[in-house]
Amino acid sequence: MKRTLILIFIFLMSTLLLSGCGSILKPFMGQAEKEPVETVDKEGEEEEEQEVKEEPKEAKEEFEEVEPEAEKEQEEEPIQTVKLGDYEVYIGGEVVEEDGKIIIHGESNLLPGARVVGEVLVGEEEESDFFSDTSEIVQDDGSFYMELAHHDSNQETQVSVKFHFDGQQDDNMIRHYGDRGQNLEGPYIYKHQGEVGGGKPQNIFKMAKVVTTFEPSGEKAIRHFKVANWNPTPDDMGDTRVWIEVDEINNDKEYFYLQGRSNLSEGANIFVHYGSWRQDETRVLPDGSFYLKIPYEYREDTNFVIEFNPNHWSQWNEIEERYGAEGQKLVGDLVVQDKYSDKQYIEKVVEEESQLIDIPANVELEVEGSEVTMLVPDNILFDYDKYDLKKEAQETLNEISQTLESAFNKKDLDILIIGHTDNTGSKEYNQELSKQRADEVKKHIEKQLKSKDMSITTEGYGDSKPIASNDTEEGQAKNRRVEIIINLADR
Asked: Where is the stretch described as Disordered (predicted)?
């Protein structure tokens, strides 16, 4: 019996021992069971990853096969440097004179389908001696082509291109730029009054405009549109305490040229009077600047009088509201009380100190806004294909240097000298030659100038900006030139 109890005890203990070992080994046994499963899954994942990795490889191989053709297309097609439809509008191009017509090869970043208007004007807008206009549609690449009638005379000619909403524009243009062009931005943008409706707010539009002014020549001249060179906008622009400054008064014995600045709002209409009958009017530009041109007449003890009257019929409603329909909001030392009513206006008296822009007879003079250009044919300055100044060139440049010091204020005068060639030779050679010629002219002028406040820079344009046809010797001779440009706007 005792032996039997011992055997039963040993059996129970053995059972318990085996059961405990199984519990202890179970985690390890489970891990061992899982390892083959993980190995299988990992191999499956690696196979899937291999397939995924191979797909981009195939796509890359397909791209590499197409890439040379794409590069070829890029080489054949010009790179688009401007974004069509940008609110900051660009308009440019060249104007070519031909027999009986003026041709405009235009370029822009306007949306395709935009309607642009080209105009040729001789004389004043109100009483023009000649006027011609046309309208064309901008193409898919932003370009446009125009033909206008030529007046076939030697009178000063203004050619302009405008993009505005006082006329026909399709719905897409109106949605994009605004029904009055209010989304237009940049240095090409001006406010203007519509043809019908007076100065009411709904009749004041924004437009993009470029202009070139020149005197026609016998040759087929080529002109380029220029972007306006704006000054910084006055911090107090639109303030009722009005100030007006005249920076420059010059004449060429045909016209007086006045250039000035003000804090009057853009679009304010101002007048200038010289004596009883000589006068001009203009609207203040976006930067507060203004340019006036009066027929020349020598008169002793006669001043220029610049006037701004908010009550004048030509003022826009927004100008009347800003300064008061009767000028009642105007303050400051320029305010004048009307003798016969309660109305007020602004008056600025400028003493006549006009300087004569006296240039040598063989040099052409162009005055366009704040830019005065002296055009010197290269046969006066250089031998053919050379950049060393001729001895006789020194006399011409000496006279020009004297004019620069006597006819313009000496402080902060910016002068740009540009060399041009005809199309004989390579473009690289012509560009280098034109720059060398401009540099030589600069060196000589700097030696003659007593003032050290004048800043002179040079550029060489080679044959890229002709003013006449290169198909004739006479045209090539005109294209070989040096331009001395005095920019009055930056002063």
From this structure: 32-79, 452-480
Sign of CA dihedral 262, 266, 268, 272: positive
Q: What sign results for the dihedral spanned by CA atoms 386, 388, 394, 398?
A: positive
What per-residue confidence (pLDDT) applies to 344? Answer: 96
Q: Which domain holds residue 375?
A: 364-487
pTM beyond cutoff 0.70: no
Q: What is the CATH number of the domain that holds 105?
A: 2.60.40
**Torsion angle, alpha carbons of 151, 157, 160, 165, to 10:** -70
Give a yes or no: residue 103 inside a domain: yes
β-strands 255-262, 244-251 pairing: antiparallel
| C-alpha distance from residue 374 to each of 25, 147, 294, 362 (Å) | 105, 29, 21, 10
82 inside domain:
no
3-state secondary structure of 28: helix
HSE (side-chain half, CA atoms, 13 Å) at 303: 9
Residue-wise pLDDT tens digits, 70-129: 443 444 444 445 689 999 999 999 998 887 899 999 999 999 999 999 999 988 777 788
Say if 162 falls within a structural domain.
yes
Residues 219, 271, single domain; the answer is no
